[in-house]
Amino acid sequence: MRKIQMVDLKGQYKKIKEVVDSSVLEVIDSAAFINGPRVHEFQKNLEEYLGVKHVIPCANGTDALQIAMMGLGLKPGDEVITADFTFAATVEVIALLQLTPVLVDVDPVNFNIDIDAIKKAITPKTKAIVPVHLFGLCANMDAVMELAKEHDLYVIEDNAQAIGADYTYSNGNKVKAGAISHVASTSFFPSKNLGCYGDGGAIFTNDDDLAHTIRGIVNHGMYKRYHHDVVGVNSRLDSMQAAVLNAKLPHLDTYNKARRSAAQKYNEAFRDMDNVITPCGCNKCSTINDTCNCHVFHQYTLRVIDVDRDALVAHLNSQEIPCGVYYPIPLHRQKAYLDSRYNEDDFRVTNQLVKEVISLPMHTELDDEQIEFITSAVKNFIKNN
Predict the structure, then answer these.
(1) Which of 1, 325, 350, 361 is the most exposed place for a label (fewest CB within 10 A)?
(2) Which domain holds residue 314?
(3) 3-state secondary structure the chain
(4) What is the pLDDT of residues 347-376, one digit of tens each?
(5) Full-model pTM
């Protein structure tokens, strides 16, 4: 059996090596390292894939989220509601801009932001909602957008983990994750479903004026060289990373299908285990299936009930099976984001999830032998402990 990787980037690279290598060498030969033709080509290709009017590439996913907020003109003290159960980057940029983060609980089934919790958190100071499409599944965007319209709020999708996923509206129409809200951000960190070989990110929007503002922000506030019209940052996707992303983008749907297939096999293996809760699909299709692209499994995350999760992690590691705990500490308990306004009773789901979740290896190169070895190790531990 091949060595099990949490993410097998090398195996994936070998299948597209010729295209990647020639594309990167072409960039080096042209010496067009910043804002070169490959960046513009990738931008156009991703716009077409997502069905959005504007993709603005930038240096990384955290910058993308920060720049999206800067483009909306949010002011210090404005409240921004987001999920407590996510990576720190989501709340980090809110704090960096001197906005006021308002953390709320999540849904116990799909791990995404809880709609009722958003409703309770809205105040006259609320200006935006940041739903995180966690682990590859879209939040309930029908409800989020309805709330935003009712209260005149911006919605910023944190799409770092769900590139390529479909969201099905209540009327049956489908749209790509990141193409739903006023503006969205994504990350091209190497382990993402669409990842480069370094750092990279992008902002998406259908708003022409907002796109124009953001294009200036990512380039020191310049539209014309040495003319700084807005306060900006230095955040540009370099041409070699764009070349890698261009090579990978045509394979994204295939990559996501492979992840979904692996998730189905995991789910089947755990089907009869009462103390293991497997990931679900969207509200339209509660089970994972071949016809729905609602979940693209950036992570495959279980909940283990009445099981010593940390002991399970140690057991898997002893079997040379990598795994992860995303996330072990809620944001509202992180030292940087402590706030006396928070009440532990308002985070009951998140506080429970951090004790129960465990993510198993998930990538495009997983094979049946590896999945059998991983699932057997999990099941044997739970049955014997």
Answers:
(1) 1
(2) 252-383
(3) CCCCCCCCHHHHHHHHHHHHHHHHHHHHHHCCCECCHHHHHHHHHHHHHHCCCEEEEECCHHHHHHHHHHHCCCCCCCEEEEECCCCCHHHHHHHHCCCEEEEECECCCCCCECHHHHHHHCCCCEEEEECECHHHECCCHHHHHHHHHHHCCEEEEECCCCCCCEEECCCCCEEECCCCCCEEEEECCCCCCCCCCCCCEEEEECCHHHHHHHHHHCECCEEECCEECCCCCECCCEHHHHHHHHHHHHHHHHHHHHHHHHHHHHHHHCCCCCCEECCCCCCCCCCCCCCCCCECCCCEEEEECCCCHHHHHHHHHHCCCCCECCCCCCHHHCHHHCCCCCCHHHHHHHHHHHHHEEEECCCCCCCHHHHHHHHHHHHHHHHCC
(4) 999 999 999 999 999 999 999 999 999 999
(5) 0.96
